[in-house]
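We store amino acids, tokens; thus:
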Amino acid sequence: MLVCVLAVAAAVGVVAIAAFLFRRLGNGTDDLVPDGPSAGHAGSMLSSLFLLVFAIAIVVPWTTADAARQNTYAESQAAVETYWSAARLPAPGGAQLQQQVRDYVGFVLNKEWPLMASGRLSVEGASRLEALRTQAAGLIVKDDDAKAAKSDVLDEVRDLSAARRQRAADARATPPAGVLPLTILTGLIVIVFPFMAGARPRGKTLAPLVVMAALLGFGVFLTWQISHVFASGLSVGPDAFSAALSEFDRIPWSG
């Protein structure tokens, strides 16, 4: 924070020193009009700065949300594949594994998903997955087909665990610190800049400023809406896990 304050102070100091030196040297002319070169240069740079910050505030969370959405489908697909492989195991072990997979997906869908809005996953979910792994590893099978099915189950549970860890990271993901406040600040400066430069728009000249302000406000609202992957108006939903539960109903029961 101190470095940021020093950087801002140094930049302002450069402007003050340049204004003082050029005035003492007699170079240039006074610029007092709202549409002069100083206001034009500052306005274009402020607009560029706002667009840069706004792009970061939109693109980074949007990319994170898209990756998180794809990961939920990868996790649910791993659950479906585990369920399929468990169906190839002899009863009652295979049926028990299938039920554990179904219970895990139902737990994520109904109980764990709301917790992710606060950036965390349930400890119980991890315990359920570990119990599933232990149950699969402890099965005693004899024929080659059953051994291959057991190996597939363990591989798919491993993929399921990896996808879960990624979902935990996605739940904790946030935009770079200060991006949203800086977006709001630069948006406000862009809106009031004509007045700061000395312009006094009236009548029809206010219309484009009002439209611009409304669009900037909507843009800032959009950046806030996608600032958290699982806790906003545009958050990632549990559709993948709902689809997995529906898929389970079409898979044969073990034994």
Notes: The chain has one domain: 36-248. The helical segments are 2-25, 37-87, 93-115, 123-137, 144-172, 179-196, 206-225, 239-248. Residues 36-248 form one domain.
